Amino acid sequence: MAAVLAALATACAVGAWRLSLARWPWRAPRAAIFFWQSLGVTWGLASVGALLAFALAPYGGGVVYGLGAFADAVVSFGHGPFTLADLPRALALAAGLMLLAVLVSVLLVATARTVRARRRHRALLALISREDPGVPGVRVVDHPGAAAYCLPGIMSSDVVVSAGTLSLLSADELKAVLAHEAAHVRERHDLVLLPFTALRWLLPWVGVVRDAHSSVALLIEMAADDRARRYCCPRRLATALLRFGAAGQLPAPSGALGAAGAQVMARVDRLVRPGPALPRRCRYGLVTFSMLLSVSGPLLWIYPG
C-alpha cells in the first residue's frame, strides 16, 4: 500500500507539472480549476499516506487501522509488532505525522493571515471610501491611480474601484470590469486560491508549486472573464484590461482579487480571439476523473491491504 500511495503522490506531482505547461485548460477554466484542486488534495493525502503506510505496515490493516492499532500499542506501553527499534519505520511515522501537521497548520495560518488582512483593509475602507450614485453597490476610493478589486468576506464582500478608474474607463468598460469582480465574489475564487497560496508560502523554492499557484490564479481570472462576458461585450473587458496595463494598475491589497491580476495579455487575446471551448463530454470526463482522483486518497487510507 505504501508503494501505491507513493506512486499516486508522484503521479500527482508529475501531473501538476505537465498541467502547468498545458494550454488546453484555458478552454475550460472551471473544469481545470477543479482538476487542480483534486491534484493538490490527492498529492497531500497520498504523500502523508505513503509514509504512514510504510511505518504501520507491521499492523497489516492499512493507514487508518494502523494508526488506531499503534495508539493502542502506545497506551499498552509499546507492546505490538511496531517498536522504536525499527528506526526506518519510526522515522517514517514521525515524518508522516509531521507532514500532515505542517500542511494543516500552514492552511490554517494562511487563512488567519488572510482574514486579518481583509479585516484591516475593510476597516480602512470604512474611513476612506465612499458610495457613488453612478456605481451603486461599489466602494469608491479617491485615488488618481487605476484600481479595481473585490474584497471577499464571510457574510458579504466589497467591490472597490478608485476614482482614477472611473475617469479612465468608459461606461461599457466599467460595466465589464464590475461584472468580472462580481464573478469573483459569486464563485468565491478567494477560497479556491487560498490552499495554493498556503502551499506556495510553505514551499516557495519549489518550481512546480510556484507554477501551480500562477496557473490557478490565471484560470480564476479566465473563469471570471467568462462569467463577465455573459453580461458585457468581451472586447470592452479586453480594452479595460489594456487600459489598466497602460495606466499602471495599482496592486490589489493582500487577500483581494484584482481585475488585472494575472497574465493580462493572455486574457486579452482569449477575449478578443476566443478559441473553441473544450467539448462538453471532455469537460464532464475531466470533472468525473477529478472526483475519482479526489476520493482515491481517502479510500487508500482505509483500504486494509
UniProtKB/TrEMBL annotation:
InterPro entries from the UniProt entry: Beta-lactam_resp_regulator, Peptidase_M48
Alphabetically ordered keywords of this record: Hydrolase, Membrane, Metal-binding, Metalloprotease, Protease, Transmembrane, Transmembrane helix, Zinc
Cofactor note: Binds 1 zinc ion per subunit.
Any one Pfam family match given in the protein's UniProt record, by short name: Peptidase_M48
Transmembrane segments: 32-56, 90-112, 284-303
Superkingdom to which the source organism belongs: Bacteria
Domain Peptidase M48: 121-195
GO molecular function: metal ion binding; metalloendopeptidase activity
Swiss-Prot/TrEMBL GO biological process terms: proteolysis
Record-linked Gene3D superfamilies: Metalloproteases ('zincins'), catalytic domain
Cofactor(s) for this UniProt protein: Zn(2+)
UniProt record similarity statement: Belongs to the peptidase M48 family.
Stated name of the protein: Integral membrane protein
Organism field: Sphaerisporangium rufum
